[in-house]
Amino acid sequence: MQIFEFDTVVDSADGLDGQSVPPLVFKWLEEQCLTPDERAPVWLKLTSRKGRRAIQFTHYVGVLRAPCGFQIEILPKIGRHSSRDQARKKLIEMLICLRGFRHIKTSNADLQTEHMPLLEVFLRQFLEAAGQVVKRGVRSDYSARQANLSSLRGKLLMAPHLSQNLVRRDRFFSEYDEYIQDRAENRLIHTALRKTLGMCKAPGNQRLARELCFVFADVPTCTDIVLDFKRVRLDRGMAYYEPALEWARLILQGDSPVTGAGKHHAPSLLFPMEAVFEAYVAKHLRAQVQQGSTLRSQTSKHHLVSHQQQDWFRLKPDLLIEKGRQTCVVLDTKWKLLDSVKGNSREKYLLSQADFYQLHAYAHLYLKDSGNVVLIYPLTDSFTKPLPVFDFNSSEGLKLWVVPFCFESCRLLLPEESSLDEYLFYEQQHS
User: Fold this and answer.
1) Phi, psi (5° rounding) for residue 97?
2) Smallest Cα–Cα separation from 223: which of 267, 190, 175, 259?
3) Global confidence as pTM
4) Domain regions of the chain by residue span
5) CB 3.0-4.6 Å disulfide test: which of 125, 134, 156, 283 passes with 97?
6) What is the dihedral angle through the alpha carbons of 16, 26, 41, 66, rounded to the nearest 10 degrees?
């Protein structure tokens, strides 16, 4: 089943028009919404439709699978005016920009398979990364072992030797080093393979998972996943392990590679679209800044207030353009849909007053009330060109621009009359 952000689903037993899910799946989703506040998922909420219970999804995208195996793919809302396949492809392209997902291969034929569920696509990527580890060699390492042996090996441990072998002179309780594949990196991959085997439904993925589990059969699974990730040590020549370990981290540690998706007992990969959009814009703009300028992301140099010799409320703009040590432009991405037609004092293009307050605070501390701040929104049919400039009444030298980001050209559409092209390669607005 494929839906978009903020879509609503109902129980198929209610007989309502629209998107419906089986009663068992609806009951499970409802149970997730009714969990205690501290554990309630943020990716869906209870609502009503025509007097009946309904579930509305929020700004998280990706794939969700119920315990019964029913899968729901949640696509970006900008795909409503295009085909679902295009929206799905664009989502995968955007996910590559997220930390931990850079190992997705868009050239993989599986990504072009329209009928393969998104979760199966992700699992296939991990299986192929683990397969590369096997092809290039599963590394071994020296590991300390203790055992009661028939011959002395390594160092004799006197205390356990005397307690266990007081009347057995043919035994030696020894500690020794053994060169084996039982190391943290292999345990993590094996554990992720076992979990993947229980998650995947596609015959090809199941076959490959079983083959890889057989290769790692002599490697024990993790008893403490968190501790094993701390023990990861990629020695010289082990860079080929990195993609498989990145995928293993996503599969084993929580349900979302970005914190805040909530906890639930189902194999899922969910991503907040704000973070996905920010990472996507940052990746492409970084290569488009003019020579001599630098684009920085998630920089936090200032706090909003100081109190009793402590700094409170860190101000962290999404993006900054700097020349040397001087900040020239502050940019913030917003995953919201604007409407250029609604430019009256009541609707205000669907802009948020809170976003303007936020940018004003950034400008005051990062630009000293003089320069350019930019709000970046996705390009849509209702928002195809930059809005007229906004002047802050508190400062004559401070301007705020609201510009669209084009997903086809992967560039900002800048105003024709602005100083922004001093810092970014100029992209003339289409008429």
Assistant:
1) -75, -15
2) 190
3) 0.75
4) 1-98+257-272, 102-140+181-255, 141-180, 287-422
5) 283
6) -130
